[in-house]
Design a protein that fits this description.
With about 70 residues, this protein is α+β, with helices and mostly antiparallel strands. The protein is built from one helix and three strands, in the order βαββ. Helix content is about 15%, strand content about 50%. A three-stranded antiparallel β-sheet has the order 1-3-2. The radius of gyration is 14 Å and the shape is elongated.
């Protein structure tokens, strides 16, 4: 295996249903414009709570992708 270099960026996904769906939405969207995604690490989870009720689940992810030669 040869040496490789990866770039890591942070993205945020949201869902009205769950953190899992928020993470999946973020990865699916990122894969539309970034090639060769490798790993997504969940860094933070939170919810928005207007009027005392959960409105949206949010997930911050670090996503890595390989630099192209």
């Amino acid at each position: 295996m040869s040496e490789s270099v990866y770039k890591i960026i942070e993205i945020v996904g949201t869902s009205p249903t769950s953190w899992e769906k928020a993470a999946a939405a973020a990865v699916e969207r990122a894969s539309q414009t970034l090639r060769d995604l490798r790993v997504a690490e969940i860094c933070q989870q939170d919810v928005t709570i207007p009027d005392g009720k959960v409105e949206a689940y949010r997930v911050r992810l670090k996503v890595s992708f390989k630099f192209e030669d």
